[in-house]
Amino acid sequence: MTEHYTLRVNGRDHEVDGAWLGESLLYVLRDRLGLPGSKSGCEQGECGSCSVLVDGGLVCSCLVLAASAVGQEITTVEALGGPHDAMSVVQEAFVSEGGVQCGFCTPGLVMAVHDLLVRNPEPTDLDVREAISGNLCRCTGYGRVLAAVRAAVGAGGVAGAAGAAGAAGAGGRSE
Ligand code: FES
Ligand code: FES
Q1: What is the dihedral of CA 146, 147, 148, 153, to 10 degrees?
Q2: Distance, CA of 119 to CA of 112 (rounded, Å)
Q3: Buried b (16+ CB within 10 A) or exposed e, 84-117
Q4: How much distance in Å is there from the Cα of 45 to the middle of ligand 2?
Q5: Most distant CA pair in the chain: distance in Å?
Q6: Measured in angstroms, how far is the CA atom of residue 114 from the centroid of ligand 1?
Q7: What is the best residue among 40, 94, 106 to mutate for testing ligand 2's pocket, by most ligand atoms within 8 Å of CB?
Q8: Helices 143-154 and 89-96 sit at what angle, rounded to 10 degrees?
Q9: In the beta sheet, which residues pair with residue 8?
Q10: For residue 162, how far is the Cα from the chain centroid?
Q11: Which domains, and CATH codes, for the chain?
C-alpha cells in the first residue's frame, strides 16, 4: 500500500506520492525530492553523513521514517547557504581550512557544526570533538575540521555574513 503525504523541507512543502511508509527520510530526501546533499554512507546511524535537522534537532536521516516527520520542519544542507549558491560561514571555513577532501562526510559535518554553533557560539575543542563524534571522516584526521570550526567561530559562526541565511550549507558533493 502506498501513501501520500506532505513534508516541510527547507521552508517549502513537498508532496510525496506513492510512497511506502517504511521509507527513510534520507531516501525520500534524495530519491523522491531531489535533495542529494545528505549522503548515504552506512544507512545504520554510524557515519553521520546523512545528518539533517528535524524541528531543530540533529538526526541521522537514515534512521528516521520520512512519514514520521510530517508536520515537522526539516532542514537539509541545501538550505544552509545564502542566495545564489553563497556558502555559509561554516562551509567557507571548511573550504578555506582544508576540511574538505573527498567531501563525502562534509555535508554531515557541516550540519553537525552548524547545530553546535547555534547552541554554543564559542565552543571549546572538546565541545567540537563531542559534537562531531557521530560523524566519520576517513580523509582529514579531523585536524582540519577542528581548524575549520575555529575559523568559522572567528568569522562570526552561524550569525556571520555569509551564513545569515545559513542560520537554518559546504554542502560537499552533490551526487
Ligand atoms: S547514512 Fe545515516 S548515519 Fe550513515
Ligand atoms: S573528507 Fe573524505 S570522508 Fe571526510
Answers
A1: 90
A2: 11
A3: eebbbbbbbbbebbebbeebbbbbbbbbbbbbbb
A4: 17
A5: 52
A6: 18
A7: 106
A8: 130
A9: 13, 73
A10: 17
A11: 3-79 (3.10.20.30), 89-167 (1.10.150.120)
Q: Cα–Cα distance between 44 and 64 in angstroms, integer?
A: 10
pLDDT at 167 over 50: no
d(Cα 101, Cα 90) in Å, to the nearest integer?
15
Contact 106, 172 (CB under 8 A): yes
Q: Which atom of ligand 1 is nearest to the CA of 51?
A: 2
User: Is residue 161 very low, low, confident or very high in pLDDT (cuts 50, 70, 90)?
Assistant: low
> Is it the case that residue 106 has pLDDT exceeding 80?
yes
* Number of other residues whose CB lies within 10 A of the CB of residue 71: 10
Percentage of the residues of the chain whose pLDDT score is greater than 70: 91
Residues 6+ apart with CB under 8 A from 172: 37, 39, 77, 100, 103, 104, 105, 106, 107, 110
Hey, how many other C-beta atoms are within 10 angstroms of the C-beta on 76? 27
Q: For 51, what's the count of Cα atoms within 13 Å in the CB-facing half-sphere?
A: 30
Contacts of 38 (CB under 8 A, 6+ apart): 26, 29, 30, 49, 50, 51, 52, 61, 76, 77, 107, 108
